[in-house]
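Let us work through a complete example step by step.
Step 1: write down the sequence.
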Amino acid sequence: MSSWQADFYHYGVSSLPGEELWHLTLCDRLGNLLYTQTCPQREVSSHWLKIHLQTLGQRMPVEEIQIFRPQILNLFSLALEDLEISLIPTRRTLGLKTYLKEHYGDGALHIDSPPPQPLPESLWGEQWRFAALPASDLMTVFQDYPIPYLDFPEDLWPVNRGIASDRLIPGVIIYAGRQARYLGQWLASIGPVSLHYQALDLNEAGGLVLEAGLSDRWIMATFNDGEMATNAQTFMNRQMEAQGLHFLLVQPDDSGMTTTGVWLLQHLAP
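Step 2: predict the structure and record it as tokens.
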């Protein structure tokens, strides 16, 4: 499938005194620049965007455009209405982000995220724990089970990222009991991106924050326990050693007989 990664935003660059200059940037998945154009802020509109996307699309046919910035979701939605190009909101636009960082600095990637929200009480599981699987097992251990909610993006497969087969991929397992199906449905609806440990009291208290969608954040679990804090830090260290890869697993219980949902995730640096 032909795919572009796109951004249309201002980066503190001015064309005239007091007027910001917007930049339309299109890259491929590897971060190779396909097209760039500037637009004075007074001319920014879905119509302007549509004209440029349509003109380029006639020369370079494309099936989908990925964007990571929530602020431009509506602009692209309107611009693509009649162009038969799918719009994919996703944080995983690594090629584009690499290009933007090199040309405009870290500030070009900044997105205001809301404070993390508590997980709805109706979705609380019964228990949870940290886990780890060798990379070679990660893609096979669940193959023999029917899993209602399964999200394993091919570009995150350890074998496709050159990760050693014996490298441990960390994860979190939630035993959700009767709520497993509802938790699986909810997770599938919000689009999990990554889980990370947020320390509140070094080596003691903290929690797990789930990043989802383009900018949503959810508190999945909290704890006040030194051993759990140590395990959480091990979880993060293993992420760093595995290119940020980790997984989230939802099961009704610890029998291993039924798996409700599995998500392969990646911690993305801002």
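Step 3: interpret the result. The helical segments are 46-59, 73-79, 94-104, 135-138, 180-190, 226-241.
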